[in-house]
Amino acid sequence: MILLHQQHWYFNALVLIFTLIGASIGAEEMLRSEEVYLQQKYQRLAISIIFVIFIIVIMLIWQRGLYPNQNGASMLGRQIAGADLRYERLGATDNGIVGFFCRCIMVNLDGVMNNAAVAYYRVHGYDKESILRFARAQHVAYVWGIAPFDSDEARIVRRIRFPAGIVYQIR
To answer: Which of 23, 113, 144, 145 has a C-alpha 20 to 30 A away from that of 165?
Structure first.
């Protein structure tokens, strides 16, 4: 059960892969023609130009910080590590980067890396309330990455505001 949301930072690797696949297909076609030498020369030049453009685009994207989800999550993880939460169980629906930087006990709540969550959601459905019930069943003290709570059933004990995000303590 994977949530369908856009993760644009994977696009860069796909561009490189498709560029290499396209270049190899183009190379096969050019080798089948009679004017092999001239076409190989232009092919090498075209591949080199495409590769250089690709590298420049990747470097510009990386330098400008166009990975907002990763930047915010890494900052939140560092802020949690500096707080008194690092020895608590923290649950999130997208917790890889936060968990890496906060060094706390992370419980994956979306089922991508947690088979127990998948089994639970198959029985109880997958919505905000069932995520919170599963978090309580897993003895999670704090949650992050779930849409803002709008019901009393969430039983929020407190909100901890970090500059990079909000962590909710639940009962």
So the answer is: 113
